[in-house]
Amino acid sequence: MDKATIVGIFLGIILILASILNEGSILTFWSLSSVLVVFGGVIASTLINYPLKHVFGVIKIVKNAFKTNTFEALVVIKFIVGLAEKARREGLLALEEEAETSDDEFIKKGIHLIVDGTDPELVRNILQAELLMMEERHRVGYGILEAMGASAPAFGMIGTLIGLILMLRNLSDPSALGPGMALALITTFYGSLLANLVFIPIAGKLKLRSSEEMMQKEIVIEGVLSIQAGENPRIVAEKMKTFLTPEEKELLEEDRKKGMESEETEE
């Protein structure tokens, strides 16, 4: 689980509740009519903007914001460099069985393509096409949440306008103006809270997850094509390093040195 997402949401809720309770009652901020306007409006607007299957699909996509990224670039690079070493020793055909040990279907597809002798340019085009389709699916997912984040404050304002109109009809009763104004502003509060604490932040986290996965898939494409070209494993590793942070580069170099020391010990 991604602790940052969970902690962020709960921390925001707790701090807001604490500030409310410090000044008054939580019931002051409860309004069923406001809930209906904001939630109902956001749901209706989303259904108008997107097909039903995409809206229901958001539930599965949102889960990714609460999961840690298990597809680590460093692990993938180590795996690809290992494949490059095996291909250099035993040939490309030896990689087919090795590819089955990976849980990533994208890596498997790339390895199967080069083992089958597919033209390098065609390999790149096939993998890039799959990458573009994945990016488009991700864009729809976080795009829905961004749209919900944009519409929530708008429907909060609509609820406020409804409340103000109803309040102005009772100008003859001055004692009702204060409570009426407070009730009208609750919908704006709901809309802003949902947008800035839930919808927009989760969309941002999903966008980050998408960019990370895109980069990692690019690593796979470059690695697979390097293996097909018969490049030295060290050259493959150096090319892959360009995708890593300085800390990850150090870890990869340390792991490589340990591997060389263990080989020397065995000899």
In total, the number of strands is 0
Please summarize the sheet with the most strands: none
In terms of quaternary structure, the protein is single chain
* Class by SSE composition: mainly alpha
How far apart the termini lie comes to 43 Å
Descriptive account of the structure:
This protein is mostly helical and 267 residues long. The protein folds into two domains: 1-30; 31-266, no CATH class. Helix content is 81%, strand content 0%. The chain contains ten helices and no strands. The chain has helices spanning 3-23, 32-49, 52-62, 73-90, 95-99, 105-115, 120-168, 177-228, 233-241, 246-266. The longest helix has 52 residues, at 177-228.
Task: Describe this protein with a few key phrases.
elongated; mainly alpha; single chain; 267 residues
Topology:
Elements: H1 3-23, H2 32-49, H3 52-62, H4 73-90, H5 95-99, H6 105-115, H7 120-168, H8 177-228, H9 233-241, H10 246-266
Q: What does this entry show, briefly?
A:
By secondary structure, the protein is mostly helical. It is 81% helix and 0% strand.
